[in-house]
Design goal:
The structure is a homodimer of 429-residue chains.
Chain A: H1 21-28, E1 32-36, E2 39-42, H2 44-63, E3 67-68, E4 74-76, H3 77-83, H4 85-88, E5 94-97, E6 103-106, H5 111-121, E7 130-139, E8 154-164, H6 167-187, E9 192-196, E10 206-213, E11 219-224, H7 226-230, H8 238-243, E12 246-248, E13 265-280, H9 282-286, E14 290-292, E15 298-300, E16 302-309, H10 310-320, E17 322-323, E18 326-327, E19 338-342, H11 348-363, E20 368-371, H12 377-387, E21 391-395, H13 397-401, E22 405-409, E23 415-418, H14 420-428
Catalytic activity (chains A, B): tRNA(Pro) + L-proline + ATP = L-prolyl-tRNA(Pro) + AMP + diphosphate
Enzyme class (chains A, B): ligase
InterPro entries (chains A, B): aa-tRNA-synt_IIb, aa-tRNA-synth_II, aa-tRNA-synth_II/BPL/LPL, Anticodon-bd, Anticodon-bd_dom_sf, Pro-tRNA-ligase_IIa, Pro-tRNA-synth_IIa_bac-type, Pro-tRNA_synthetase
Chain lengths: 429, 429
């Protein structure tokens, strides 16, 4: 993509309304624009990151054996009356009346709808278990939307639901999702700490929140240093995990039986990006979601639900990866891998070298944003640091005269001068 | 994917509520389920097709130089008051009041919002022209939703908007999109006839509807036989096109100057799947979307808008490709390329051969749905014909005893017996 034609409205000034780093940087880097309170448009650069996050979430859900479907955003109020939540949910639910005066709502979550789909379509224990998920927009009418996409009203969420014939089956699905979550966040370059949580309004008794660590995180967290060792592993069994201490600050209790001694207790800040629940038969019972068992007996489905805040993750990643100059994207979610800076657009050698690099990288499947604008070097460096692509490749007349370009790693700040060939080899490796 | 675990609730009976083939078949093939009037859940098989259609639309939009962004589904009523459409739109607009009594709406289209984004973020003629699009859910509160996803209330649409400095620029964008549409539909195996259309409620004076041909199409169309010759081409210039006759039956006039003689006039049935408009300055004027020109003068953006009904296309494709037994997917949009039928699950030879085929195809990037169920051959054949995968590969004890499997093409009905190796070679070619 050429920056001269790309729709990337970066801002020099910090927008007054943005209180936290990720909100400021997403506005400044031209990734989002607010269109109404807590409601955002995703501009091209922001959408690319959102799609990368979504892709990683999807791949790990599929790998865990979950099957993707897609539910509508607008639901019938009657369905929520079956579970008793239509009246219980309160003002966060966006309630709508259609032209025929039917009561509808914009789904804040989908337990009722997925339970209906399961109930109407799964006819035998032979089709069990089932793990179904979607990545879809939700709406929660927050009384005070803030922090950009971190606490918006319209947001993208991955919600997954498991259905099993018994508690053992439900527990197995819970474990599979638990480990899928660890892998998902790890692939994005994040350290996620799973914390035993109260299960809140959704119900159930076994529940974990996943907080990712960031210095500017919203909540204080305390956890056993053993987590840092576990984080290196790909699988954690729940037996091990259930013994470890990890809580948000309001639940911290140094006298708790499993609270480690001070030298093994770490204090940090975290951002909640996922939440998993064992639901039991709360919804299947209320909505009569039953499956005939092998002996013809009627079995209530044992359910679990598993959420990841996909759009929220973008804010969380930026909170974990930024400096004063801008964002530092982990490569797995970066909107482009390489930012190519032409220091003197219009100079024949600079133009030709940059065009060759641009074509060569593109042909090798490397995503490049080429700053071909006729603008000052300072502007180009500032914009490239702001939008935070993992690699910056800088070509200018002085360097090219002696056969070199500069390659900078945005995360480490490391710079090297090397030949074009060597730079291409490193970026396509 | 193994059918024994796949969430694919096919139906033997034809649902009473479905009046047209695509609606019947999407329900019977387990692709969608209605959750409220005109509102559908996309089950895994249906979602796979929807994503394929979406991908082709996206690729052709990108190839045409359009840049993808994503607008929210919920918009502010005040924005629509700027264009005067909030009051004009009528009951098809789903109107919503949030918890703070602010008037909102579920976007039925996005001219106002994109014009606002353009107005707030494009600051110079040097950034022009811009073509921006999204693929996002829309809601139109149809008084009588029917025909399944063909006329639903919540639907997926690609909407694109062009902004230029003058009429010539707007016309150029229109032509680029026109040809992108022809390519898009052609890639899906469809014949699209562009018809000069009245521009209706959206406004403007240059406008084409794209109808794809299907015997069960909703509207009668009359067109010059020259279209069939043009359909083979990749690009059509508008000069040529504007002289050709193509209209829906209500506008047909055999005395029109460009109406061809009877022997060159074709009558067919079509389904509208796309619509493009030149908007002029209708919205930029109402919303003050101006760009400073080279001399500092204030220029109103010249706009165009370009829609494709993505979810509707699925119904349209099925209307064009089905028979009494089920769907016949064109390969480009098929949910899987190959349906592998194990005629005797449990038989050691059949199981081993099928597992080998399944692994080999999957490793070669061929998407396979493997019917590994312990069920009767008749059930398997009927389900596979119903869901309409382009290729059926059938392995049974009799054939394997003499070293052959059967390969059937769903579209042509052609069947051949061949060795496993030959079948794999053909499917991975």
């Amino acid at each position: 993509m050429r920056l001269s034609t790309y729709f990337l409205p970066t801002l020099k000034e910090t927008p007054a309304e943005a209180q936290i780093a990720s909100h400021r940087l997403m506005l400044r880097a031209g990734m989002v624009r607010q269109s109404a309170s807590g409601i955002y448009t995703w501009l091209p650069l922001g959408l690319r990151v959102l799609k990368n996050i979504e892709r990683i979430v999807r791949e790990e859900q599929n790998a865990a054996g979950a099957q993707e479907l897609l539910m509508p955003t607008i639901q019938s109020a009657d369905l929520w009356r079956e579970s008793g939540r239509y009246d219980a949910y309160g003002k966060e639910m966006l309630r709508i009346t259609d032209r025929h005066e039917r009561e509808m709502l914009y789904g804040p979550t989908n337990e009722e709808l997925i339970t209906q789909i399961f109930r109407d379509n799964v006819r035998s224990y032979r089709e069990m278990p089932k793990i179904l998920y979607q990545i879809q927009w939700k709406f929660r009418d927050e009384v005070r939307p803030r922090f950009g996409v971190m606490r918006g009203r319209e947001f993208l969420m991955k919600d997954c639901y498991s259905f099993a014939m018994d508690y053992e089956g439900a527990k197995k699905a819970y474990e599979v999702m638990f480990n899928a979550y660890l892998k998902t966040f790890k692939r994005m370059g994040l350290t996620a700490i799973p914390m035993a949580a109260d299960s809140g309004a959704i119900g159930g008794s076994l529940s974990h929140e996943f907080h990712i660590l960031a210095e500017t995180g919203e909540s204080g967290v305390f956890y056993d240093v053993a987590y840092d060792e576990l984080a290196a592993k790909d699988e954690i069994d729940l037996e091990t995990l259930s013994k470890l201490y990890a809580v948000t600050d309001e639940k911290h209790d140094s006298s708790a039986a499993n609270c480690p001694p001070a030298e093994r207790l770490k204090e940090a800040r975290g951002i909640e990006v996922g939440h998993i629940f064992y639901l039991g038969t709360k919804y299947s019972k209320a909505m009569n979601a039953v499956v005939p068992g092998p002996g013809g007996e009627t079995v209530l489905a044992e359910m679990g639900c598993y959420g990841i805040g996909v759009s929220r993750l973008m804010g969380a990643i930026i909170e974990a990866y930024h400096d004063d100059r801008g964002i530092k994207w982990p490569e797995a979610v970066a909107p482009f891998k390489v930012g190519l800076i032409n220091l003197k657009a219009g100079d024949a050698t600079c133009d030709k070298t940059c065009e060759d690099i641009y074509r060569s990288l593109s042909e090798n499947g490397v995503e490049v944003l080429y700053d071909d604008r006729d603008d000052r070097a300072g502007v180009k460096f500032a914009d490239m640091d702001l939008i935070g692509l993992p690699w910056q490749l800088v070509a200018g007349p002085k360097g090219l005269a002696v056969g070199v370009v500069e390659l900078k790693n945005r995360l480490s700040g490391e710079k090297v001068e090397l030949s074009v060939e060597a730079a291409l080899a490193r970026l396509t490796a």
